[in-house]
Amino acid sequence: QVQVVESGGGLVQAGGSLRLSCAASGRTFSLYTMGWFRQAPGKEREFVAAVSWTGGSPYYADSVKGRFTVSRDNAKTTVYLQMNSLKPEDTAVYYCNLRVGGNDYWGQGTQVTVSS
What we know:
The protein has 116 residues and is mostly beta strands. It has no helices and eleven strands. The chain is globular.
C-alpha cells in the first residue's frame, strides 16, 4: 500500500520561510513525479511545484517562481518544498502528490498560514 506523508506546515509572518517535507513509501518506485499542490478556502486545488525522478528541471506555478524551491532525495523517496518570501495569499492546505504508473497518490495535507 502506497503511503504519502507530509510534514512541516505551520504559522509564519509575511516575508518568512517554511520548509515542507513529503515521504513516499510502500513499494519501489520508478519513473515517477512528486510534487505539491495547495488548496485555499473556497478555491480549487492548484498546482504549486513538481520534480521528476527521471531527470529534468523542476517546474513551478508562476505564482511561486523565484520564491519556492522543490528538491528531492532519491534515496529516501522524499521531496521538499522550501518556501521563502511567503505572502498571505500563500495560505492554504498543501498536499503532496505522487504520480506513478498513471495513478495519483495524495498525502493528508499540511496547513500553511501566513499572517500579514
